């Protein structure tokens, strides 16, 4: 069971207080009527399904009722960070790859 | 109780038992005696009990193999009647006076088992995968076969009566969690405890100490068991350390969440006299130290499952901890130095060591030398290739082996013995580490799998890492404790245990005959998996270890391969000419050892299983004989039967009352969300399909809520309380989801909007009363609101006083009749209901439940979101285009999807009414709809029936359903072929069966 830091409550709380609500940073098109069916379908149906780093939304349903974002590894389930709605992640697959590379470089 | 029953294998002195406290117990109906401090297994062995059960597939006699969680054979049925407990291992059951135990299998008894004939005769007919091969066809017979197999093989039986015990659960947090209180765990906990960290240490046994309790070694000059006692009392004295014996950490989950089962009273008697029998601890730890030890591997040779063949360290444990020597003449078969310790222990107990048979050509090391010096015969470069005996060991055939341990290279001879102790090396207990998703890693020098790289804040200490010396375990424990606590320590223990010889990796002792011809060489005792079976599986093409496992059942059952897995995987690897590292291992899932369902349930059973929500009027419903239905967690009145009525008669009476006079419904469960803020109105515009810009205070409007794919997700009536204040109602089951949905859009897409959502479902009670006399009822109780049709129109709401209580009065209708809903604060709901019942008495006001509500609304063709829709219905599919705003400025949620080609198709499944051709018929809900009942199967499925009822008011059955292109099929005949062979015909019609013009609700 996950142990997740709510950036609004500023506390670690048990997973059972939260609901997972899907991929983060999916923006609703500003003018839906102006975009193609394909672009609309991409927005409503298609989500990335990465093995590894994933930015996703969680809802503190049994807590403060706030939605927030988490950077989580879908393989190890490690939660690298949580951040408020409207903020951007400080950890991404890219920054981690760079960090790993320099770690290896440093070790050799 | 007779105190003088002979315990033929009990030593006169020694052991951690209390000879002044004899305890009598029965096994398979015979009475025996043991002592306090015994396990059931040690007491059985003390009494010379050999056969403890019959094997799963071949029904072979089986004895006790181990002394702890690894025991595959000695599964017991404890206690009787409703107190009975199936499947605990005798090795983990603490003895108490009056304990009754039986074997879980064997018919008519474990000692004389008819089914073993089946094993002997049918053995060749029961290869691996025999279930699949034999019983796949005919499929219908499988159920019959399965019952027979289960009876024949059988693990324990559950009582079908209610469990007389209670259980509970508790949450705990700590800095450092230590799993296992052997030498490594004790040292780790001591170090962590001294640092001041909050520590929890658990161990599955009744006493802390693990191997120390049965060790003849010393720790810094102190006798090992004494050191363990001192360490334990030190820990118990630390206020920051929680010491939990009899507690098994059985699951290790994400983010250092460890779940442990504490057995609080199992060692005292069958049912807890006070308190709970077992407790589930849910522990969140900053750091976890796994000091779970290792399990000794048996050796695979012919007839290696005979009673009297035991793990070498288990024999030592029985001698040193329980003062029991389970034989008179012992042969020890070993591939490493640990067998020699057992030889010394047996000799020290005054019994005969016939020989230590060592597969290594030139064993050396401290223990080997000690054994030789004690005059013990060592047969180097030999192996026990076959055991002799039928229900117990009578002898061991010993033969010289080649250096690799692959071949028998000379003539064998038979050593007479009644005990064979086997030491096949050690398997680290990697189970908990595996639970976290870490794959174990093969290490040749350990000849075993060790935990893979840690993916959590996890540390390892002791034998779980493949370091088996006592001093190594203690020192690693100190270091793990220090690391986990963020401190350092230079403490080093001296146990004088250096100089250990190199082990040989020997997973299958060769026989003079090929594997398929040799006597059965068992790998997995609990599931009767043999070396021949595994070899056959590999030959038949099963290449993945996971497939071999499932085909042979190796590692199944309550045992989960604790003793058998490594030998089995090695045999697979060898058959396929691969290394064990290449074939890999199956991984372990929770639970490490079986967990009672009682503990998992805890107090969440019976009426506490799920919270029940009751409305304010619930006591009235109960007092008036309501039958209830569950709607989410709500208990809603379903119908109110009167004496002698069938359910249908009740529904007919309730529906006619609404149509002809007045009926009353408790509608408190509808979700209610209070919405405020200057942007509240615009927010409604965005989440509902219709327009809200012009809805004036005092007015209500029905709204449809869609997901972005254009499909209906919830519906309800929203009232404008004031310009910036609305009250939204949702379906009873959808309230929480709708609130989350509104918050989602506000918080993620439109945070600039000033709007606030508050659930007020529980704050208001709602009495809904409908029927031509409903206004007359209300007029008797409410004088400060003009309720006339002209002053208060359909879809108006007013604030007023009803029966002296300030109320919100809504004129809305879900029945098609003139109807009012009175909302009052919940604590006044029961009173309001009673007042309405009084006022309505002269009109025969009739309480009705959800079922009549369903009938009444279906007569009007009103949908229920979630019953007539299923997440694939647009408003247009539901003939509700009227509820969709066509000129709204903002592209409301779901609007864009209406023009998607798939959503815009005209042949989508659309809502229709269905009038059965036979007016007396009610089509079952869920029935499939086809156009041609004579079409061969598979038929073209055109849709299905979503709602169907008897309408007493109309005098015929009515139904709603979805049919492809249904809107263009008015008047067509469709058919519902049923499972019972009937085919019901119906005509497609408008779903509005009653009062299509809506005259009634506008009265």
Chain-wise SSE layout:
The complex is a heterodimer of chains A (108) and B (1003).
Chain A: E1 3-6, E2 11-14, E3 19-23, H1 37-45, E4 53-59, E5 67-73, E6 79-84, H2 93-107
Antiparallel strand pairs in A: 1-2, 3-4, 4-5, 5-6
Chain B: E1 18-27, E2 30-36, H1 40-46, E3 53-54, E4 61-62, E5 75-78, E6 85-89, E7 100-103, H2 115-122, H3 130-135, H4 142-153, E8 167-179, H5 183-194, E9 199-202, E10 218-219, E11 222-223, H6 224-236, E12 241-244, E13 247-253, E14 257-263, E15 278-290, E16 294-296, E17 309-311, H7 312-322, E18 329-334, H8 338-348, E19 352-358, H9 366-373, E20 378-380, E21 382-388, E22 395-400, E23 413-416, E24 419-423, E25 426-428, H10 431-435, E26 441-443, E27 448-450, E28 458-460, H11 470-485, E29 522-524, E30 529-530, H12 531-539, H13 545-552, H14 565-575, H15 580-583, H16 597-601, H17 618-623, E31 627-631, E32 634-639, H18 647-660, E33 663-666, E34 671-676, H19 680-687, E35 700-706, E36 712-722, E37 725-730, H20 735-748, E38 756-759, E39 764-770, H21 774-781, E40 797-802, E41 805-810, E42 819-825, H22 829-840, E43 846-847, H23 850-859, H24 901-904, E44 909-916, E45 928-929, E46 943-951, E47 956-964, E48 973-977, E49 983-989
Parallel strand pairs in B: 1-7, 8-9, 8-15, 9-12, 15-28, 17-24, 18-19, 18-24, 19-20, 33-43
Antiparallel strand pairs in B: 1-2, 3-4, 5-6, 5-7, 10-11, 13-14, 14-15, 16-25, 21-22, 22-23, 26-27, 29-30, 31-32, 33-39, 34-37, 34-38, 35-36, 36-37, 39-42, 40-41, 41-42, 44-47, 44-49, 45-46, 46-47, 48-49
Helix pairs in contact in B: 5-6, 5-11, 7-8, 8-9, 12-14, 18-23, 21-22
């Amino acid at each position: 069971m996950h142990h997740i830091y709510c950036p609004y409550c500023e506390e670690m709380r048990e997973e059972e207080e939260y609901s997972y609500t899907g991929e983060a940073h999916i923006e609703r098109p500003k003018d839906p009527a102006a975009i193609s069916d394909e672009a609309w379908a991409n927005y409503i149906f298609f989500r990335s399904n990465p093995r590894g780093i994933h930015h996703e939304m969680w809802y503190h349903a049994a807590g403060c009722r706030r939605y927030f974002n988490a950077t989580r590894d879908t393989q190890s389930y490690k939660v690298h960070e949580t951040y408020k709605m409207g903020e951007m992640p400080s950890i991404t697959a890219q920054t981690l790859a760079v960090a790993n590379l320099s770690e290896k470089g440093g070790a050799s | 109780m007779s105190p003088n029953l002979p315990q033929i294998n009990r030593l006169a002195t020694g052991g951690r038992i209390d000879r002044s406290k004899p305890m009598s117990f029965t096994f398979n109906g015979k009475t025996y005696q043991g002592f306090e401090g015994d396990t059931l297994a040690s007491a059985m062995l003390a009494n010379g009990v050999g056969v403890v059960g019959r094997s799963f597939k071949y029904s072979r006699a089986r004895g006790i193999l181990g002394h702890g969680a690894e025991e595959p054979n000695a599964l017991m049925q404890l206690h009787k009647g409703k107190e009975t407990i199936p499947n605990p291992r005798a090795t983990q059951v603490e003895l108490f006076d009056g304990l009754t135990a039986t074997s879980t299998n064997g018919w008519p008894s474990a000692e004389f088992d008819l089914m073993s004939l089946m094993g002997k005769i049918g053995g060749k007919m029961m290869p691996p995968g025999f279930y699949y091969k034999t019983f796949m066809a005919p499929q219908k017979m499988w159920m019959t076969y399965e019952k027979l197999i289960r009876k024949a093989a059988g693990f324990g039986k559950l009582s079908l009566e209610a469990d007389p015990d209670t259980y509970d659960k508790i949450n705990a947090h700590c800095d450092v969690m230590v799993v296992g209180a052997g030498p490594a765990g004790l040292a780790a906990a001591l170090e962590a405890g001294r640092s001041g960290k909050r520590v929890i240490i658990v161990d599955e046994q009744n006493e802390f100490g693990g191997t120390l309790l049965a060790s003849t070694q010393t720790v810094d000059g102190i006798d090992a068991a004494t050191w363990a006692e001192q360490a334990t009392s030190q820990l118990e004295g630390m206020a920051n350390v929680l010491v939990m014996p009899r507690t098994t950490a059985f699951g290790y989950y994400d983010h250092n969440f460890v779940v442990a089962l504490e057995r609080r009273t199992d060692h005292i008697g069958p049912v807890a006299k006070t308190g709970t029998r077992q407790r589930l601890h849910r522990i969140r730890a900053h750091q976890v130290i796994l000091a779970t030890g290792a399990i000794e591997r048996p050796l695979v040779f012919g007839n290696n499952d005979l009673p009297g063949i035991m793990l070498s360290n288990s024999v030592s444990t029985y001698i040193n901890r329980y003062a029991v020597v389970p034989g008179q003449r012992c042969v020890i078969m070993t591939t490493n130095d640990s067998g020699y310790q057992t030889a010394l222990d047996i000799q020290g107990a005054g019994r005969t060591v016939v020989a230590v048979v060592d597969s290594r050509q030139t064993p050396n090391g401290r223990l080997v030398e000690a054994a030789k010096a004690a005059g013990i015969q060592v047969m180097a470069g030999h192996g026990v290739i076959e055991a002799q005996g039928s229900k117990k060991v009578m002898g061991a055939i010993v033969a010289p082996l080649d250096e690799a341990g692959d071949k028998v290279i000379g003539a064998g001879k038979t050593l007479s013995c009644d005990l064979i102790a086997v030491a096949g090396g050690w398997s680290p207990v990697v189970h908990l580490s595996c639970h976290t998703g870490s794959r174990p890693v093969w290490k040749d020098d350990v000849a075993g799998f060790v935990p893979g790289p840690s993916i959590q804040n996890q540390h390892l200490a002791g034998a779980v890492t493949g370091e088996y010396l006592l001093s190594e375990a203690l020192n690693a424990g100190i270091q793990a404790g220090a690391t986990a606590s963020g401190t350092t320590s230079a403490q080093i223990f001296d146990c004088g245990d250096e100089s250990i010889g190199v082990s040989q990796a020997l997973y299958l002792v060769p026989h003079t005959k090929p594997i398929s011809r040799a006597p059965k060489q068992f790998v997995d005792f609990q599931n009767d998996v043999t070396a021949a079976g595994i070899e056959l599986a590999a030959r038949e093409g099963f290449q993945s270890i996971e497939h071999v496992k499932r085909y042979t059942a190796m590692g199944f059952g309550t045992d989960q391969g604790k003793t058998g897995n490594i030998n089995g995987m090695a045999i697979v690897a060898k058959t396929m000419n691969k290394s064990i590292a290449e074939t890999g291992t199956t991984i372990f899932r929770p639970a490490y050892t079986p967990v009672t369902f009682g503990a998992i349930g805890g107090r969440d059973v019976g009426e506490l299983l799920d919270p029940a929500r009751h409305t304010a009027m619930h006591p009235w419903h109960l007092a008036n004989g309501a039958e209830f239905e569950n709607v989410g967690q709500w208990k809603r009145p379903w119908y109110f039967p009167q004496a002698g009525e069938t359910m249908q008669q009740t529904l007919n009476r309730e529906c006619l009352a609404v149509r002809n006079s007045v009926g009353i419904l408790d509608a408190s469960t509808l979700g209610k969300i209070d919405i405020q803020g200057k942007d509240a109105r615009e927010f409604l515009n965005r989440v509902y399909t219709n327009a809200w810009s012009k809805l004036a205070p005092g007015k209500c409007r029905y709204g449809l809520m869609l997901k972005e794919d254009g499909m209906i997700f919830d519906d309800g009536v929203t009232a404008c309380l004031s310009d910036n204040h609305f009250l939204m109602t949702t379906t009873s089951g959808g309230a929480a989801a709708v609130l989350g949905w509104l918050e989602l859009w506000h918080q993620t897409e439109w945070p600039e909007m000033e709007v606030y959502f508050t659930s007020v479902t529980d704050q208001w009670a709602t009495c809904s009363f409908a029927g031509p006399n409903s206004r007359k009822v209300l007029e008797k109780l409410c004088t400060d609101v003009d309720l006339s049709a002209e002053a208060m129109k359909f879809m108006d709401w007013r604030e007023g006083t009803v029966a002296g209580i300030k109320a919100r009065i809504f004129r809305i209708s879900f029945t098609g009749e003139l109807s009012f809903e009175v909302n009052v604060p919940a604590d006044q709901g029961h009173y309001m209901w009673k007042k309405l019942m009084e006022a309505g008495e002269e009109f025969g006001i009739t309480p009705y439940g959800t079922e009549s509500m369903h009938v009444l609304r279906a007569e009007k063709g009103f949908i229920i979101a979630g019953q007539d829709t299923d997440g694939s219905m647009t408003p247009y599919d539901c003939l509700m285009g009227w509820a969709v705003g066509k000129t709204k400025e903002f592209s409301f949620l779901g609007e864009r999807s209406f023009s998607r080609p798939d959503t815009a198709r005209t042949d989508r499944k659309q809502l229709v009414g269905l009038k059965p051709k036979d007016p007396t018929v009610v089509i079952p809900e869920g029935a499939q709809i086809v156009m041609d009942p004579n079409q061969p199967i598979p038929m073209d499925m055109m849709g299905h029936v979503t709602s169907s009822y008897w309408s007493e008011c109309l005098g015929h059955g009515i139904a709603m359903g979805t049919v492809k292109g249904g809107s263009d099929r008015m008047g067509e005949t469709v058919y519902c072929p049923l499972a019972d062979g009937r085919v019901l015909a119906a005509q497609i019609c408008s779903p509005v069966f009653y009062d299509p013009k809506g005259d009634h609700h506008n009265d």
